[in-house]
Design a protein that fits this description.
CATH superfamily of the largest domain: Dihydrodipicolinate Reductase, domain 2
Strand content: 25-35%
Distance between the termini: 53 Å
Mean pLDDT: 91
Radius of gyration: 21 Å
Number of domains: 2
Oligomer: single chain
Largest sheet: 10 strands, mixed
Order of helices and strands: EHEHHEHEHEHEHEEEEEEEEHHE
Shape: globular
Number of helices: 9
CATH class of the largest domain: Alpha Beta
Structural class: alpha/beta
Number of strands: 15
Low-confidence stretches: none
């Protein structure tokens, strides 16, 4: 039985608590949170022990789940890893590039499992297509959210866009060639809306727009590749595939079109989306990696690479952003 300790039981932390309770092979032993209101609610609702000493909680656990503000990630993770504990840490993995590099070195030396909470990797709409032969050459992303003061200690790049950066880096097996970015700080001191163009060495281009001051929510990614278009709606949990029909494409809607190269048959498929719990799936995958000594689904290296690109974007924006 793996013992789990949770650092941070705010809004997202409570989702983690609910899911840890349902995962086989683990036991919640306690939590650490300096916020008395959060702590009181969790003690009363979950009957979970509140630890007032961080090290004592770490010593009582096999797994540390870090859901604190980003600027606290490194110190907590560092202590836990030095004690030989496995760590699940929410994105972004650390607050700075230097901290991220130091953390990767610690993980390598300690031989523990670390997974970063890029939960969209486990979104059922994405899971429905991730095993297809995806080789996008053009990617269009819109991630829009209504304003919420929670999470504004970091920019919209590190708060929202980093989800899409992580997925794009996992899909495009090529190094970043160039980045063009602009952003506007409206409600906070950091960019609240941003538009980014990333070019890769293999010719792929990704256009990303993220906003946390929109009137409506949107989380869509469109992938264009030779002979196919794949649309993923992370919010509505829908997926659409439009491509040239192949012999194996059965029971899908199709129609013929005339092209300069002759008649082509277009197939439109809408894969069945299973009603899956993405947070539970990512925590289960982490436990599976520990128990079976497998690589984690989103490693500390994956988390660092996404954060590194996010910080490159922030550097580009710093010279063009407008304070309103």
């Amino acid at each position: 039985m793996l013992k789990v300790g949770v650092f941070g039981v705010g809004h997202l932390g409570k989702f983690h608590l609910n899911n840890w309770k349902e995962i086989a092979g683990v036991k919640l032993v306690g939590f650490f949170d300096p916020n008395n209101d959060n702590a009181k609610e969790v003690v009363e609702k979950y009957g979970l022990k509140r630890y007032m000493d961080e090290e004592k909680l770490m010593d009582a656990c096999d797994i540390i789940d870090v859901i604190t503000p980003t600027n606290q990630h490194f110190d907590i993770c560092m202590q836990a890893i030095r004690k030989g504990k496995h760590v699940f840490v929410e994105k972004p993995i650390t607050n700075t590039i230097q901290e991220g590099r130091a953390l990767m070195d610690l993980v390598r030396e300690a031989n523990v499992k670390v997974q970063v909470g890029h939960v969209e990797r486990f979104n059922p709409a994405y899971l429905a297509v991730k095993d297809l032969n995806l080789n996008p050459m053009f990617i269009e992303v819109h991630r829009l959210a209504q304003f919420n003061p929670r999470g504004t200690e970091v920019s919209v790049i590190l708060d929202l866009m980093i989800h899409d950066i992580d997925i794009i880096l996992s899909l495009v097996k090529s190094d970043v060639k160039s980045i063009v970015a602009s952003g506007v700080a409206v409600m906070t001191e950091t960019p609240d809306i941003a538009n980014v163009r990333i070019e890769f060495n293999n010719g792929c281009v990704a256009n990303l727009t993220s906003s946390r001051i929109s009137m409506k929510k949107m989380r869509k990614m469109r992938l264009f590749q030779k002979d196919a278009y794949i649309g993923v709606d992370f919010l509505e949990k829908k997926t659409e595939i439009i491509k040239l029909k192949q012999p194996e494409d059965q029971d899908v809607f199709s129609f013929d079109i005339d092209t300069p190269n002759g008649k082509k048959t277009i197939a439109i498929a809408t894969p069945t989306i299973e009603p899956l719990n993405a947070i539970k799936l990512e925590l289960e995958s982490f436990v599976d990696a520990i128990v079976n000594n497998k690589p984690t689904a989103v490693s500390e290296i994956d988390g660092f690479l996404a954060m590194e690109v996010a910080h490159q974007i922030l550097e580009k924006i710093s010279s063009t952003s407008i304070l309103v």
